[in-house]
Amino acid sequence: MSEKLFDVYGRYYDLLYQDKDYAAEAGYIDALLKRYGIAGSDLLEFGSGTGKHGRLLAERGYKVIGIERSAEMVAKAAPADGFVCQQGDIRAVSLGRTFNAVISLFHVISYQTGNSDVQGVFSRAAEHLLPGGLFLFDVWYSPAVYAQKPEVRVKRLLDDDLEVTRIAEPVSWPNENRIDVNYTIHALQKSNGQFSTLSESHPMRHFSIPELDLLAEAAGFERLRAEEFLSGAEPGEQTWGVCFVLRRI
Length: 249
Ligand SMILES: C[S@@+](CC[C@H](N)C(=O)[O-])C[C@H]1O[C@@H](n2cnc3c(N)ncnc32)[C@H](O)[C@@H]1O
What we know:
Elements: H1 13-16, H2 22-35, E1 42-46, H3 52-59, E2 63-68, H4 71-76, E3 83-87, E4 99-104, H5 115-127, E5 129-141, H6 142-148, E6 153-158, E7 162-173, E8 178-189, E9 194-207, H7 209-218, E10 221-228, E11 241-248
Parallel strand pairs: 1-2, 1-4, 2-3, 4-5, 5-9
Antiparallel strand pairs: 5-11, 6-7, 7-8, 8-9, 10-11
Helix pairs in contact: 2-3
The chain binds S-adenosylmethionine.
């Protein structure tokens, strides 16, 4: 996993995901946490990105500390009342305290492509929870990846000063449960006419439920839920993003 991942992509991250409904997602996470008795408590967020979920959850009364590896993303993650973010690697982080829940949203766990990467993150989550604490995350779901097959996608976005075209070209590694998404970004800065082309490859692992159950059990967790992210529906071949809720035993 490259340490520089997101340092290019991160420059355009909020523009690329301007249509993502972070408010609805924060509402969904809040409802799931409340279902298991965790309301307005201390959250550790793994891979907090530009801080959007963290700030929205802070508005809902949680105290959130984000851990994010990319310096570019950390620089864009403005602190707010109840939300701070620090640079770190979630495979190795050790804050020396516990939280009520660890959350990790928008496929952060799928960026952990090797077994030792996932095992490291699950162990770090367990170390930051007391028995009964929750670990909540979403991943790419293997049955949907096999059934739908990733395709080349082009996305065009605009703001006051930027015109961005992102091309996503997937390369599949079926024996490794991995898709490398090769991004090319063409960006035009309208104010000065500067045009740049950048590229970054994002290796993404997809998971099955029994595979994650084994990893969870080995790290001292039991699974409470596996459901479609946001809808709560039962996962199937059409479910690209599955949300897991684990409880520390
Ligand atoms: C798709 S982004 C999601 C960001 C944010 N959670 C959101 O929902 O917008 C994935 C993030 O995970 C971070 N990440 C991936 N692996 C990481 C690791 N081992 N340690 C810390 N951050 C990591 C990346 O740098 C990136 O910011």
